[in-house]
Amino acid sequence: MVNQEELNFFHRDDKLKSEFEDLERQRLKIKFYDKGFIISLILFFSCFGVLFLLAITTQIIKASIIDIFFIAAPISVISFGIFFGLSIVKSGDFRKKYKEKIVKPIVTMIDDTWIYKPEEKITQKQYISSLLYEDRIDFYTGNDLIEGVIEQTDFKCSELVTQYEVKNTSKNKNWHTTFRGLFFHADFNKYFTAATFVRTRRNGIKVDKSFKVVELEDATFSKIFEVRSIDQVEARYILTPSIMEAIVKLYQYYQQPIDISFVGNRVYCAVSFSHSLFEPSSFIPVYDVDVIHEIYKVLYFNKAIIHELNLNTRIWMKGAITSS
């Protein structure tokens, strides 16, 4: 799926190379600040640790040791504040430039008609419309919205994080993540009278028991995914052998849990990741081949799913699906 020639050209482009070098200098400064506040933090807790150990082992703390502590501790706190503040200030500008100089050109390289909005996201209404997750939403955030049309199929995707709050018996608050990853939806060119869900088999996913399990003949597909729907006939109509093969292919390629729903005339797809997808790290070079490859691979999902699910083949009229 990933075009290696395009990625090689991306690295060889002289204009991009100079922009990489500028970003790399900025990254190294932030890395210095990050190391500074980490070392300051270690020094601060080390002071407390040494003082505590001396207190419990000797029960006597010399005045000279106390003097050293009262000198080192404030210095480490002040250093931490300075380095942390500089890192926060510089990271904001670096992040903005990284999205503009690294992520956006990769989007354009895949398809120059796509629109990239780094500070926007899939709306909460669109997320809820997927019916993929039943958990209450107490926290909803995201970024890196991409929207476009591939041939005749419109789509949108963005990174999302959704969480809900749980209070335990001691009234402490805990946050549970419902979804973190890439959320995608597109026109499916068919209209569904009932919702159908395809979920990667794994623990911890809540399902509506009113949606009955659909048994399918594809053994490889059924081993990886569970299908539920109110309408068994419509579910089988949607999940043709070629569609099931395509979903398995996507799962094997991305090696991440994939949950799909077919609702109304839209297909919704949530690919779970445990990390941020398009955020720069001060500890990884901006021209790191693996990082750029990963960004390309994730963004290419938009084109891959539309092609693999054959969404551009409009041989059914919307509203044409009927159940016996």
TrEMBL record:
It holds the Pfam family DUF3137. Keywords: Membrane, Transmembrane, Transmembrane helix. The chain crosses the membrane at residues 36-56, 68-89. This is DUF3137 domain-containing protein. InterPro entries: DUF3137.
